[in-house]
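[step 3/7] inverse_fold.run input=structure_tokens len=454
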């Protein structure tokens, strides 16, 4: 057929084809395909791929591509990265998508880091760690052996764990190596706190003592309580030490001289916890930067102003039941903004500016679960069998880790949380070191540690 005649025929058949219904068009195409040979079918296949498989990520402006990608979940995006090098390049460059994915997993985000590939790598690291938590593979255990009698007091700071025992000694351990750095002779220890130079101990002999690590010498002895001292805290800037006792009192001491500055009364049960902390919020009773003392007994938490002045009066008393039918557990969290304590009813969180209860968290079977640590994203809890991690945004338990038959203590000093910064959000760097420590019936200390990333 001549070219001119062919073009006329093609125009004519095109007009007719366009007038057909969709069904008729399909039947026409089926018929033409059946009449086609290999050359025609190959030509058809090559052109269909171009017409049907358009790479929209390549064709769209980058900003519009990023907008569309925001609607996909991270797992789908990872699958899309396998489509082609171009897709992988575009998807990996969408910083906001990967930052949002990390936030959803409870990861801390540093907005100053704008390297897109960095955030995709962070997400991959985050998803691995969260999977390890879910599959009970994020932690490992070890033991510290060295005491010859009951270990009752534990305190952790910057990779170092201090233990106080009925064998009249206190030891300082490097958690990462399991090595004992210092060991000094003391009295029986019911509470310990330390820094680089000194160790402060509260004792069952009703006294508080300050010791020098390097020499083991006692530098101060604080006498005045008539019951065992269950909790101590101190602040070098204020030159103040506080102690809570089984004699129902809290004493405020001059740290450098050992002089008792004040005895705070009002508790009707053993004072099992004292916390000295800077306030971070403003109210009618305190301002940011003020030092605050919290003291807790079986039923109440009392709030005291503290400073260089000698006398202070209780600002507020908090409880979860007016008739004292519900007791508080002895671990207490206070970060200057919120007070958190647990009871058989659940976790109670108070706003420190108003003293109002912000929320009560009630996980399943909470009657036996106790608080270890509380942050912006996660809480660390435990009971007689397991260590738990709760996502505070959903109030769901996302992980648990089995615990051995540890030594039980109603007062609760022989358990503690380790590193705490990850409770405000993991970041790929703070998920290392000590998670939990507890004393064992054989006088050893059982450690739960973060396992390195797989």
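[step 3/7] decode complete -> sequence:
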């Amino acid at each position: 057929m001549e070219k001119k005649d062919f073009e006329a025929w093609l125009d004519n058949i095109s007009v007719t084809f366009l007038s057909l219904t969709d069904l008729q068009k399909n039947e026409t195409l089926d018929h033409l395909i059946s009449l086609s040979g290999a050359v025609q079918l190959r030509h058809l296949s090559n052109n269909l791929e171009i017409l049907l498989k358009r790479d929209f990520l390549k064709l769209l402006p980058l900003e519009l591509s990023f907008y569309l990608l925001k609607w996909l979940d991270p797992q789908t995006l990872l699958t899309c990265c396998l489509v082609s090098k171009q897709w992988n390049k575009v998807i990996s460059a969408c910083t906001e998508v990967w930052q949002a994915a990390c936030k959803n997993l409870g990861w801390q985000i540093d907005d100053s880091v704008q390297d897109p590939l960095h955030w995709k790598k962070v997400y991959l690291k985050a998803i691995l760690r969260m999977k390890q938590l879910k599959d009970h593979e994020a932690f490992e255990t070890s033991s510290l052996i060295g005491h010859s009698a009951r270990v009752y007091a534990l305190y952790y700071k910057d990779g170092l764990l201090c233990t106080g025992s009925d064998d009249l000694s206190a030891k300082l351990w490097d958690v990462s190596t399991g090595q004992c750095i210092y060991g000094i002779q003391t009295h029986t220890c019911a509470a310990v706190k330390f820094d680089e130079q000194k160790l402060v101990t509260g004792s069952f002999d009703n006294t508080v003592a300050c010791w020098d690590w390097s020499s083991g010498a006692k530098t101060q002895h604080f006498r005045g309580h008539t019951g065992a001292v269950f909790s101590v805290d101190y602040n070098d800037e204020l030159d103040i030490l506080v102690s809570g006792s089984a004699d129902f009192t809290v004493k405020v001491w001059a740290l450098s001289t050992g002089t008792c500055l004040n005895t705070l009364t009002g508790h009707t049960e053993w004072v099992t916890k004292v916390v000295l902390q800077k306030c971070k919020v403003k109210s009618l009773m305190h301002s940011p930067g003020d030092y605050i003392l919290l003291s807790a007994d079986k039923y109440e938490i009392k709030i005291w102003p503290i400073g260089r002045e000698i006398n202070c009066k209780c600002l507020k008393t908090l409880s979860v039941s007016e008739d004292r039918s519900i007791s508080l557990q002895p671990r207490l969290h206070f970060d200057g903004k919120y007070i958190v304590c647990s009871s058989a009813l659940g976790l109670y969180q108070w706003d420190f500016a108003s003293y109002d209860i912000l929320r009560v968290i009630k996980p399943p079977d909470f009657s036996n679960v106790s608080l270890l640590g509380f942050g912006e994203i996660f809480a660390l809890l435990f009971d007689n069998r397991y260590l738990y991690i709760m996502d505070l945004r959903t109030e769901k338990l996302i992980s648990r880790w089995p615990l051995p038959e540890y030594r039980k203590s109603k007062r609760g000093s022989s358990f503690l949380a380790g590193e705490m910064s990850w409770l405000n959000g993991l970041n790929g760097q703070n998920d290392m070191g000590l998670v939990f420590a507890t004393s064992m019936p054989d006088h050893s200390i059982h450690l739960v540690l973060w396992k390195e990333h797989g």
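[step 4/7] annotate
Residues 3-48 form one domain.
The first strand starts at residue 139 and ends at 144.
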